[in-house]
């Protein structure tokens, strides 16, 4: 199975499950994405965030495409898309 998300530098597209959804959205909604790689999801260290969470919090980027765990601390500083509910 493919990973959830994977930046493919040679194509400039995102791969994996989440990437496939993002690529469909780009095409259907007619927009393009400029990616900025980050190797750390983001944790709170001594009261300061790092990684992708900090880039989102400080508005250096508009969105992060990855498989984040929605923790209480992260939910206080960034918005998450909500998973669909199962009936």
TrEMBL record:
One of its GO terms (molecular function) is ligand-gated monoatomic ion channel activity. Its main location: membrane. Residues 10-83 form the Ionotropic glutamate receptor L-glutamate and glycine-binding domain. Signal peptide: none annotated. It is a multi-pass membrane protein. GO terms for cellular component: membrane. It is found in: Membrane. Keywords: Glycoprotein, Ion channel, Ion transport, Ligand-gated ion channel, Membrane, Receptor, Transmembrane, Transmembrane helix, Transport. It holds the Pfam family Lig_chan-Glu_bd. The keyword Transmembrane applies. InterPro entries: Glu/Gly-bd. This is Ionotropic glutamate receptor L-glutamate and glycine-binding domain-containing protein. The lineage of its organism: Eukaryota, Metazoa, Ecdysozoa, Arthropoda, Hexapoda.
């Amino acid at each position: 199975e493919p990973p959830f998300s994977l930046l493919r530098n040679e194509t400039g597209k995102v791969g994996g499950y989440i990437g496939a959804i993002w690529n469909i959205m780009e095409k259907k909604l007619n927009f393009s994405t400029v990616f900025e790689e980050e190797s750390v999801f983001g944790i709170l260290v001594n009261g300061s965030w790092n990684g992708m969470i900090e880039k989102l919090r400080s508005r250096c980027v508009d969105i992060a495409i990855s498989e984040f765990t929605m923790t209480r601390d992260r939910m206080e500083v960034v918005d998450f898309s909500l998973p669909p509910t199962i009936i």
